[in-house]
Amino acid sequence: MRYEKREGRDPLIVSKRGVGYDIKSNSRMIEVKGVGESWQTYNWQSLYRNEIECLNENPKDFYLYIVKFKDKNSDEVTGFYAIKGKDLKAKFRVEIETYGVRPISRSSLKEFLKDWK
Predict the structure, then answer these.
(1) Phi, then psi, of 68 in degrees rounded to 5
(2) Could you read off the pLDDT of 12-67 as tens digits, one per residue?
(3) What are the helix (H) ranges across the chain?
(4) How far apart are the first and last CA of the chain?
(5) What pTM value is reported for the model?
(6) What is the DSSP-derived secondary structure letter of residue 64?
(7) Distance between CA atoms of residues 20 and 53, nearest Å
(8) What DSSP character marks residue 71?
(9) More confident residue, 10 or 43
(10) Residues 37 and 56 sit within 8 Å (Cβ to Cβ)
């Protein structure tokens, strides 16, 4: 938000709307990810399906901002990367890494509940 304001744009947090990005800033659709992992082991960034769909539908307006923290327990920012959607599509591989398993409802889990004692 601070970066967007400093650049003269008017950012608005929209992350709770399920639109595929976290911040709407003028025409920019910005997905923000925080990373506290060492660069020696960090080699990918997970994105959800709706974020990839937004990237594919709006490559000129989509941006991925990666905020690098000193480590997993730190608030100290050591790097900030702003990657345009068209660059994500041209210079990065977008791969399906995992699948999620979600219950249909909480009540559907009841049959699987076991006593821990």
Answers:
(1) -95, 120
(2) 999 989 899 999 999 999 999 988 877 666 667 888 889 999 999 999 999 999 88
(3) 2-6, 49-57, 85-91
(4) 48
(5) 0.78
(6) E
(7) 7
(8) S
(9) 10
(10) no
Whether the per-residue pLDDT at 103 is higher than 70: the answer is: no
List beta partners, residue 79.
Answer: 68
pLDDT of residue 107 exceeding 70: yes
User: Which amino acid belongs to residue 94?
Assistant: V
**69, HSE (Cβ side, Cα atoms, 13 Å):** 11
Side chain identity, residue 64 = L
69 token code pair: 């923290």
Give the closest residue to 97 by CA, choosing from 54, 56, 57, 44.
44
User: Which residue, chain included where needed, has tokens 């041209």?
Assistant: 90
Closest CA to 22 of 41, 48, 59: 48
In total, the chain counts a number of residues equal to: 117
Token digits for 40?
Answer: 């020696």
- Whether 77 contacts 68, CB under 8 Å: yes
